[in-house]
Amino acid sequence: MAPSLYPDYPPELTTEREKYLLANLKDWSIAHGLAVRPAPSFVTQDQDPSGVLATTAPITLFPSLFPRACFEEGLAIQKAYNELYSAIARDEEWLKGIVEELVNIDDFVAKLWEIHVAVKKEGYVQELSLGLFRSDYMVHVDPSISGAPAGLKQVEFNTIASSFGGLSSQVSVLHNYLLNINAYPSSASAIIKADALPQSKSASSLAAGLASAHKAYGTSRTSYPRCVLFVVQDPERNVFDQRLLEYSLLSENGVRSFRLPFHRTLLDTKLDPDRTLIYVPPHSQTTPYEATTVYFRAGYSPDDHPRSEDWAARLQLERSRAIKCPSILTQLAGCKKIQQVLATPQSPHLKRFLPDDATASRVLRTFAPIYPLDKSNAGEEARNLATNPESANKYVLKPQREGGGNNIYRKAIPKFLKSLPESHWPAYILMEMIEPPALRNAILRNGEVQKGGVIGELGVYGVCLWKNGTGQKAGEVLENWEAGYLLRTKGDQSEEGGVAAGFGAVDSCCLV
Ligand code: ADP
Ligand code: MG
Ligand code: MG
User: Fold this and answer.
1) Domain range for residue 378?
2) Which of 155, 408, 431 maximizes ligand 1 atoms within 8 Å of its Cβ, making it the mutation to test the pocket?
3) 0.80 exceeded by the pTM?
């Protein structure tokens, strides 16, 4: 890891000042929904039998330093990334070529593909698709070149259930508030200042994306009121992150939404003969709603599908007339395998989706080297690298999974691969580890402050609404905007970064 350019950041706090900062941070966070339901290990069912307790979300005490040029570049290229991934999701033939390499070795991908094929056979009745995307990056500093400039490298691109847009908006306001009440010592004022703290508009901007789909749905098919459905896991500790989008959807856009636990889909929804999606709220069965948009905050993991009914539920939603965020094809476009194929040197794929050379080369600059583990030449080379503990140490091995906690890192890769039949290796991709600059910060998690070396991961949200199909205006992008940012920060001893998975904290940027 490169040495820090700002060894005195964050500033040391006196005991009294730390107390002041924490007292304000704890109250502000609860007062503004910067919160999560407590972990069962933190508060037992006996202590909170009716589930009323909430606690501050894991957050940093200070905004973390982030290079301004990298931040601005990440935001600037988000519209190109939206265009890229919406184009991939529209190109079923191309996607099929890649998904076919996975279906025999990855049951989850196979199931998703099966659903798409079944709906395609019957014919899709909804041509619009919505993406609430998040492109994740780390700042990379080449350790072999002293003084090498920092560049932004993409960790992954999320096309389903991109989380923390709600909490991220709040944490940037919190850090600004802490600045305004002089919780940070004046010795740091040259660094922490209002124009260095970009405010993330992600909650509002993602909600506006849902509202745009709701509006674009067109004429109602029934006389029922209309709604957006948030398809969620149950229980969900990260509920306030989602609630902040729901509240913004209602207060800023006048759009009603409901939370539908994924496992209740077949109980609480039905399809009309023309496949209009009807939602019947369990608390008020006499007032059904016509669902215009289905926003998945569940359904990205095999764990969401323990029963065969769960696959029937996904089929019902995909068949419906509601706009899906995401559609199955859009979800599949987010496979790590797609990212690897795009990153293949000299491949024609990026140009296929981003015909403008300047745009394509800007996007290309954010790709880190990623290799397949198949029988191609590049794959054979990668297999050699991955099975040798010395060379494997530079890499991370990733399956086609979402939600954190699924990757295998560095020296653990050879042993892991040995435990797997070789025929399954192509279900994984091998990615070079990005080497971010050394930073320090303090994280409040479960009431405890942890201080030390940290690693930051920038997420940039994007909203994209487009038209699929073959008819008039097929392929047209109706809406495309950058939708704010997220900074997640984790201890530098952990390879994983998921906040919900217990590794990281929600943070905001202090641009330098
Ligand atoms: P998921 O879809 O499960 O979030 P990711 O690809 O984001 O999978 O990987 C999870 C975490 O692993 C990231 O948040 C990051 O902390 C770490 N990680 C993944 N790829 C890299 C990489 N190339 N270099 C460094 N860290 C990585
Ligand atoms: Mg992901
Ligand atoms: Mg991730």
Assistant:
1) 369-433
2) 155
3) yes
